[in-house]
Amino acid sequence: MMTARTVRRRRVIALLAGAMVPLVLLAGMLLPVSIQQTEAGWTAETSVSATAAAAVIPAPQLTAQCQYRPGVLGLGAEVRIHWALPAGYELTDIVFQKSSNGLGSLLEPITGFSGVSGTTRNTDGTYTTTVPVGLLGGLLGLGSGMNLGVTVKDDSGWTSQPALVMARSGAVAGLGSGCWNQT
Q1: pLDDT value for 74
Q2: 176 assigned to some structural domain
Q3: DSSP string spanning 107-169?
Q4: What pTM was computed for the model?
Q5: CATH code for position 163
Q6: Which site in 27, 80, 111, 167 is 20 to 30 Å from 8, CA atoms measured?
Q7: Whole domain around residue 157: which residue ranges?
């Protein structure tokens, strides 16, 4: 059996609990709705230094003046590059690069050039690479030119500076053509 005192106590607790719910909700509404952005910073008296170094991949060296061979009436025109492989590298580490300029270069095919199969090893350990100029660039000339580069690609993926030559076909059938070492 419940006494009057127990009943009163339960009513007071229920009344206080009922009054607390609206107060908590009101307090939640008065608090800021979102978090404001702040900037944080700090200073320190300690200084730190570091050094970084990159590998230098040695470039192939040109060993003789390049040669432009016009072929017969410009057919079979080719450029020969004479170069030496840096110590510690193999022929498979070499990357041959070709870029063209001049009116005739628009017609020159890049296909048919394989640096490895177009390269021979000389008796003195140097290499000679023969690069076909292209039928229309050699036959018609049109003043086309090619820049050819021989580079080393290291296992790390880094590439050396190129050993560069520049070749220019003549106006017609290779007349006035030539080749010049650039590095």
Answers
A1: 62
A2: yes
A3: T---TT--TTTTEEE-TTS-EEEEEE--HHHHHT-TT-EEEEEEEEB-TTS-BPPPEEEEEE-
A4: 0.62
A5: 2.60.40
A6: 27
A7: 61-181
Domain total in the chain = 1
pLDDT band at 89 (very low <50, low <70, confident <90, very high): very high
The pair of structure tokens assigned to 32 is: 């800021």
The pLDDT tens digits for 55-87 are 789 999 999 999 988 877 667 788 899 999 999
Instruction: Give, in order, the Cα–Cα distances in Å from 127 to each of 62, 90, 97, 163.
Output: 9, 11, 16, 13
- Cα-flanking dihedrals φ and ψ of residue 38, to 5°? -130, 160
